[in-house]
Specification:
The protein is 32% helix and 24% strand. It is an alpha/beta fold. It has two domains: 9-37 and 79-112 and 265-336, FAD/NAD(P)-binding domain (3-Layer(bba) Sandwich); 125-263 and 356-429, FAD/NAD(P)-binding domain, CATH 3.50.50. The strands form eight sheets. A six-stranded mixed sheet has the order 5-2-1-9-22-21, with helices on one face. It has a five-stranded parallel sheet with strand order 11-18-12-13-14. A three-stranded antiparallel sheet has the order 6-7-8, with no helix packed on it. Strand 25 and strand 26 (366-369) form a beta hairpin. It is globular. The structure holds flavin-adenine dinucleotide. Residues 13-18, 35-38, 44-45, 47-48, 80-81, 107-110, 127-128, 169-170, 268, 270, 302-304, 315-318, 320 line the site of flavin-adenine dinucleotide (FAD). Flavin-adenine dinucleotide binds next to helix 1, strand 2, helix 2, helix 6 and helix 8.
Length: 433
């Protein structure tokens, strides 16, 4: 059947779901506009490595326009969308411009869920984009610099305490990477203090780490982290966070200038402004076909979508990739006048790395840990990275880190981090700001 004569599909979001949708539509030669507030696709699973000086920001980002070189029917527009007029089939951007669409795929991803905990939003570092990762890395490096000259023991201890809130994959991986930093970088770079003075605390409200993993692997991840010197506190709720400490329910207080929030996910804010129905955590409610109810030409995919009957699907890259592909496939079916297909997730397994040669993997019924899981983790992440240059650079970096026990460039960069009359120390104490 012939395609609709002049469709103009808009894909909103250049993450895993948007990228996959755009590729599918581009290969089907359907005129498509790809819109994102940033001009690159970011490989979020490796953000924590940027934050801990293992990789550079550009190693995990790939320009959207480079992706489109082989897809001439797809164009890109850099724009932050702030609303929509579903009746008129158009999006609205920060500049007041309208972007019309014949069909729309919303793939705007997630943002941190703070559960209303005081300070969770303003007094923590989070990891949702390259800016976040860069800010955290600068902060960690600056904190270490400050600790070298701090003579007050209690203040030095607070400077060198890092609290990660949330025992999912991001929290576990970040805690493990900080432990590696402590083990391999601190003794060489910061001789003014003992590496053991650096304290890493991982706080999780639930009874165990890595809830989606089988119990054996959850226990293994915990053991590995503890062997790395990470204090793991499960069943512990955070009640308040300030720039100088983390308060736990029950009254305990951990003095720190570094709280990293990895505790929850909700839909990116724009989802609430599009005029479509939303459900738990502000996510867009969609039918099993990924269509927005009552909007036969609008689909949602990835972290932003809450699929009817599949509400328990995890917000992970594989789900986003498969939903992006599926949403694009269903758009093509709408254009051809064919019936739509329901989304069905094919679970390819779960992986999390704890550090050098330590990871846990649950893949196709197999549960394994340690070095084999770590190798699988390395290979899968390399394969999933976009762009040959990025793959090569990341491979070289990892090989360098592995054989030299060193980390990447540890320069504090960015205008807000230049030394001013206020002094570095005062800035460090200010936390994320
Ligand atoms: C730190 C971290 C580590 C993770 N680790 C893993 C892991 O190890 N394994 C795994 O499977 N998953 C992991 N995930 C989850 C995985 O990255 C997400 O499930 C996946 O990125 C979701 O893809 P998406 O396309 O829905 O959204 P995203 O990849 O978040 O992309 C959303 C896009 O929408 C754009 N956007 C948002 N709002 C607007 C707007 N108003 N206007 C224009 N553009 C907008 C954003 O700029 C972004 O490019 C991790 C996530 C994070 C944050």
């Amino acid at each position: 059947m012939a395609l609709d004569p002049a469709p103009r599909v808009v894909v909103l979001g250049a993450g895993f779901a948007g990228l996959r949708a755009v590729r599918r539509l581009g290969h089907a030669r359907v005129a498509t506009l790809w819109v994102d507030a940033r001009n690159y696709h970011c490989f979020l699973p490796l953000l924590y490595q940027v934050a801990t000086a293992g990789l550079e920001p550009q190693d995990i980002a790939y320009p959207a326009r480079s992706i489109l070189r082989r897809l001439p029917v797809v164009d890109f527009q850099l724009a932050r969308v702030v609303g929509a007029d579903p009746g008129a089939q158009r999006l609205r951007t920060t500049t007041g411009e309208h972007i019309p669409y014949s069909h729309l795929i919303v793939a705007t991803g997630g943002a941190a869920e703070d559960f209303g905990i005081p300070g969770a939003r303003d007094a923590t570092f989070r990891l949702y984009d390259l800016e976040d990762a860069r800010a955290l890395r600068n902060h960690v490096l600056r904190i270490c610099e400050c600790a070298t000259t701090e003579v007050r023991a209690t203040e030095r201890a607070a400077l060198l305490t890092f609290v990660i809130v949330g025992g999912g994959a991001t929290g576990v991986e970040t805690a493990g990477a900080l432990a590696e930093f402590r083990r391999h970088v601190v003794p060489r770079d910061y001789r003014a203090f003992e590496a053991s003075a650096m304290r890493i605390v991982l706080v999780e409200a639930g009874p165990e780490l890595l809830p989606p993993f089988p119990p054996v692997l959850r226990a293994r991840a915990r053991r590995d982290l503890e062997a790395f010197g990470v204090e793991v506190r499960t069943g512990t709720r955070v009640s308040r966070i300030t720039p100088v400490g983390v308060e736990l329910a029950g009254g305990a207080h951990i003095p720190t200038h570094t709280a990293i929030w990895a505790a929850g996910i909700r839909a990116a804010p724009v989802a609430a402004d599009l005029g479509f129905p939303t459900g738990r955590s502000g996510r867009l409610l969609v039918e099993p076909t990924l269509q927005i109810p009552g909007q036969p030409r609008v689909f949602a995919a990835g972290d932003v979508a809450l699929v009817a009957g599949q509400e328990r699907l995890p917000q992970v890259a594989q789900v986003a990739i498969q939903q992006g592909e599926h949403a694009a496939e269903n758009v093509l079916r709408v254009l051809r006048g064919e019936g739509l297909l329901d989304f069905q997730y094919r679970d390819k397994g779960a992986l999390a790395t704890i550090g050098r040669s330590r990871a846990v993997a649950a893949i196709r019924g197999l549960e394994f840990a340690g070095r084999p899981a770590w190798w699988v983790w390395l290979v899968i992440h390399l394969v999933m990275l976009i762009g040959f240059r990025n793959r090569l650079v990341v491979l070289v970096n990892w090989a360098w880190n592995y054989f030299t026990y060193d980390r990447g460039l540890r320069a504090i960069v960015g205008a807000e981090h230049e030394t001013s009359e206020d002094g570095e120390q005062a800035r460090a104490a200010g936390g994320p700001g």
